[in-house]
Amino acid sequence: MPTTLVTLPRRRGLVLADLFPEVLARDAAIVCGAACFVGLLAQVSIPLSWTPVPITGQTLGVVLAGSALGMRRGFAALALYAAAGLAGVPWFAGHASGWPGGLFGYVVGFVFAAAVCGLLAERRADRKVKSAIGAILVGDAIIFAVGVPWLAASYHFSAAEAIGKGLVPFLAGEGIKIALAAGLLPTAWKVVGGAARKPNPPRP
């Protein structure tokens, strides 16, 4: 009897990770892999002399992971990233681990941003470039909405200083990452989604 690789979930929308056989081991591997992916992009780190916050590739990894995994798995992946980094895995920016002090607000923001991007992806926001841009902007806004006030409280910055050191230097880079992610996600649906929906040939 012909079979397909995809079993549509009943209670939420389909995301990219659902295009592969649904087993517990798959979900665990995907969550761990997404955490490692963010950790890898965190090593793309450029320190800036006027701010304690470096330029990194983390935010790109967060929105891609959340969108591809969905709300629950995206949340789990970034919660794993945060917890393992605190426990000593050297995959925060610049191979750091342990308590990152004033920068931990961004990591907390990652967890919620991944969950929200995943929720929006379950509602098909990642299928087209325009809607993907909107979803990723929401995720980015969450990251900075948590990270900047945390930075201000930790370093005793004024609101203007925190924005100048924790947001403004990263706007251009975030624009590039948003454009990249918004192009990658719909393309992945066209490539992977179309292939996964093809039925297996009937057995002789």
Briefly summarize what is shown:
The chain is mainly α and 204 residues long. The chain is 63% helix and 5% strand.
- The top-level CATH class is Mainly Alpha
Q: How many strands in all?
A: 2
Beta-strand percent range: under 5%
Terminal CA distance reads 10 Å
SS summary, helix count: 7
Shape label? globular
Q: And the CATH topology?
A: Arp2/3 complex 21 kDa subunit ARPC3
**Helix content range:** 55-70%
Low-confidence stretches: 1-10
* Structural class by sheet pairing and helices: mainly alpha
Largest sheet: 2 strands, antiparallel
The average pLDDT value, as a whole number, equals 89
**Strands ordered across the widest β-sheet:** 1-2
Count of folded domains: 1
Radius of gyration: 18 Å
User: What is the N-to-C succession of helices and strands?
Assistant: HEEHHHHHH
